[in-house]
Amino acid sequence: MKKIIKQLLKYPIKIINSIYLYFYYKFSKKGEYEVKEIFNQPFQRVVVLAPHVDDEVIGVGAALLKHSRNGDEITCVYITDGSACSTDFSRDTIIAVRKGEAEKIKEFIGLKEIIF
């Protein structure tokens, strides 16, 4: 029954959606919106939540560099310590290596604080 209703409503909904979007864009106020450039603000505080070390660089590394060059205060919070990876090293060794990597990232990007 559900499939039949979906098939019956599929095309009328597409048509209504197209008509709505046509009139929405035809009568919208083009060019009247102010877009603020986030990197031109005088000072910002940034918090990055990363699952584990290196995800902050992979995800938002370029934005972090821009914020750092702007003089913004950046804090990175690591959700896990990365010790659950499959390797022959001990858990304590993995944690120490990950924290060392985070310290290098902190220096390179210019993070104010890192939290594990």
Overall description:
This is PIG-L family deacetylase. Strands 1-2-3 form a three-stranded parallel sheet, covered by helices on one side. The chain is 52% helix and 13% strand. The model has no long low-confidence stretch (mean pLDDT 85). The chain has helices at 2-26, 55-69, 91-110, and strands at residues 45-50, 73-78, 113-115. The protein is of the alpha/beta class. The chain has a domain at 45-114. The longest helix is centred in the N-terminal third of the chain and has 25 residues, at 2-26.
Structure, briefly:
This protein has 3 helices and 3 strands.
List strands and helices in order, with pairings.
Blueprint: H1 2-26, E1 45-50, H2 55-69, E2 73-78, H3 91-110, E3 113-115
Parallel strand pairs: 1-2, 2-3
Q: Which residues sit in consecutive blocks of at least 5 with pLDDT less than 50?
A: none
Beta-strand fraction estimate = 5-15%
End-to-end separation in angstroms reads: 52 Å
Strand/helix succession: HEHEHE
Query: What assembly state would you assign to the polypeptide chains in this entry?
Result: single chain
Shape: flat
Tell me the total number of β-strands: 3
Structural class: alpha/beta
What is the overall number of helices? 3
Name the features.
about 120 residues; alpha/beta; three-stranded parallel β-sheet; 3 helices; 3 strands; about 15% strand
